Amino acid sequence: MRFTGFLVLSLIKQSYRYQNMSHDNSPLKSAQPEVSRRDFVKGSSVIAASTALTSLSTKAATLPYSASYGPLSMKTCKATGLALLALPEGFEYTSYGWTGQIQSDRTITPTDHDGMAVVAAKQNIICLVRNHELSQGEGAKCDPASGRGIYNPTQYGGTTNILFDADSGRFLSSYNSLGGTIRNCAGGLTPWSTWLSCEETYQENSGYYHGYVFEVPGFGISDGKPIREMGRFSHEAVAVDPATGFVYETEDAGSSCFYKFEPTGAYGDLKSGGRLYAMVLNNTSRVDLRGGLVEGTTWDVSWQEVADPDAINQRCFDQASDAAIIERGEGCWYDDGKIYFVSTSGGAANLGQIFCFDPRKQTLTLVFESTSDSEVDGPDNIAVSPRGSILMCEDGGSNPKRLVGLTQAGETFTFCENHIALDQGDVQTIDQVYPGVAENFWDSVGPSMNGSNRRSFSSREWAGACFHGRWLFVNVQSPGVTFAITGPWENGAL
User: Fold this and answer.
1) What is the pTM of this model?
2) Given this model, what pLDDT does residue 442 score?
3) CA 470, chain centre distance (Å)
4) Are 369 and 346 within 8 A, CB to CB?
5) 8 Å CB contact between 338 and 320
6) pLDDT of residue 452
7) How high is the pLDDT of residue 277?
8) What is the largest CA-CA distance in the chain?
9) How is residue 60 annotated by DSSP?
10) Are 161 and 216 a contacting pair, CB within 8 Å?
11) How far is Cα of residue 493 from the mean position of the Cα atoms in its chain?
12) In this structure, is residue 46 part of a structural domain?
């Protein structure tokens, strides 16, 4: 499958879904429990439509086999021959972009891989843009070799662009595309084939203020200029509604808001300015979403304008005095007319929540709250799969860290586990495939904490999950590596 930009991706997704689902357009009742996640699909289109997961099809729930794809077992990487991941039967993967690997622009691949998406395509060649959550002095800089696209020359964060042949399943090249930023955690793709990279910080450094969003083209290099009107705060992720061009933003802070940026320029022009708003629920000041809530609860949404999004001494959160309070807003994803976003440590058990915002109805619904670490512990980045299920990148206390699926029936399952453990010989093996790793790897990730020859990275977080055709792309943040996974997707829910 080939597409360029998010609008085409959305159309491809629909080919997997039922075409004749009915929809109940009756108004949702504010702040009332609608239906539990385990009631999402029980044969009733009315029940399905009354929840925020109407955009998640019922197909996977009616498949004649396991939605979870079955038990996991260790699989070897097609590129390096090392056993790194546990996956269901029939799945395979390759790796690329290892920390220290020499890129096509002769720069060193930075570490701390984070948010990522397929941003653009030219025939079978697709471009992923990948964040690097780096601060000053952490390994190699993200600075483009051209010297362009650098914001603050003292800082190390930024993005790299990766080219991949979707037909042959081969990674082709990578290069630095944005530099001089701090802690580029997540972000989001746009319908106009760019990536919005978000700084997860709120600080001043060397005369530069940080906490901004930067735009990166799919095939090219960023101009390195922050989009100040989108707000200065501890950004995490964004999702763009292709119907309006509005950008929805999450904030990774203990008390945070969910924001909307309405550009005033032409469609796709974010740099000509706009207005920033924070989400208010039920016209009530400071509705607190951090505690235990009933899944299916729905609120009416209105918006409070942030008067000075680029304020030096006042947080956007404090300016939006009526905005709802979210516990560490993180992953954010558009799918089929809805915006899904994560509260990583929200909920009664502090294990994570997923909300769904409907921009047409102007409603917010809690669609999932983890009650046990056996479900998921700290979901971070998320992506909606071609079959409509949600894939969560885990970043909590579990070890090994997991990629966890959330089905349309509201059930969770482990799709993949991180079992990366490397010694000097393993790094030499990787270097034979990807030169530069042996020379630069340990300087970036640091030595073993216990002095052993073999260092485990199984507790390191997943990030940047995204789908394209038969491929799932995803990162492990440290040691910093990107995986392309494929297999019998039709046998389960993703």
Assistant:
1) 0.88
2) 86
3) 19
4) yes
5) no
6) 62
7) 98
8) 63
9) G
10) yes
11) 19
12) yes
22-31, 158-167, 238-247: which range is least confident on average?
Answer: 22-31
64 within a domain of the structure (yes/no): yes
Tell me if 70 sits within 8 A of 51, measured CB to CB.
no
Asked if pLDDT for residue 262 goes beyond 50, the answer is: yes
Tokens of 229: 């009107």
User: Looking at this protein, which amino acid is placed at residue 44?
Assistant: S
Q: Please give the average per-residue pLDDT across 49-67, as a whole number.
A: 48
23: tokens are 């929809």
Beta strands in 48-203 (DSSP E): 72-76, 83-88, 92-96, 113-122, 125-132, 157-165, 170-181, 184-189, 194-199
How far apart are the C-alpha atoms of 259 and 233, rounded to whole Å? 11
* Residue corresponding to tokens 């005033």: 264
Query: Residue 206, class by beta-carbon neighbours within 10 Å (0-12 exposed, 13-18 middle, 19+ buried)?
Result: exposed
Domain that holds residue 46: 6-491
Q: Specify the CATH number for the domain of residue 55.
A: 2.120.10.30
The answer as to whether 1 is a domain residue is no
Query: Does 283 fall in a domain?
Result: yes
Bridge partners of 171?
A: 164
The residue that leads in pLDDT, 51 or 305, is: 305
Residue 1 has pLDDT above 50, yes or no: no
- Kind and range of the H or E run holding 280: strand 274-281
Radius of gyration of the chain measured on its C-alpha atoms = 21
| DSSP label at residue 492 | S
Task: Give the model's pLDDT for residue 408.
Answer: 87
Question: What is the rounded CA–CA span in Å between residue 140 and residue 480?
Answer: 12
What is the number of alpha carbons within 13 Å of residue 470 lying toward its C-beta?
15
Strand partners, 452: none
Q: CA–CA separation, 408 vs 389, rounded Å?
A: 6
CA dist 98 and 283 (Å) reads 48
Contact (Cβ atoms closer than 8 angstroms) between residue 480 and residue 97? yes
Distance between CA atoms of 208 and 187, rounded to whole angstroms? Answer: 21
Average pLDDT over residues 155-178: 98
Q: What total of structural domains would you count in the chain? A: 1
Residue 412 pLDDT more than 80? Answer: yes
Residues in CB range of 353: below 8 A, 6 or more apart:
289, 293, 327, 342, 343, 346, 347, 366, 368, 369, 370
Where are the alpha helices (H) located in 334-460, listed in sequence order? Answer: 424-433, 437-445
Per-residue CA distances from 185 to 258, 380, 418 (Å): 17, 10, 20
Higher per-residue pLDDT: 91 or 10: 91
Closest listed residue to residue 295, CA positions, set 355, 349, 343: 355
Q: How far apart are CA 462 and CA 396, in angstroms?
A: 10
Residue 131 phi, psi dihedral angles, 5° rounding: -80, 155
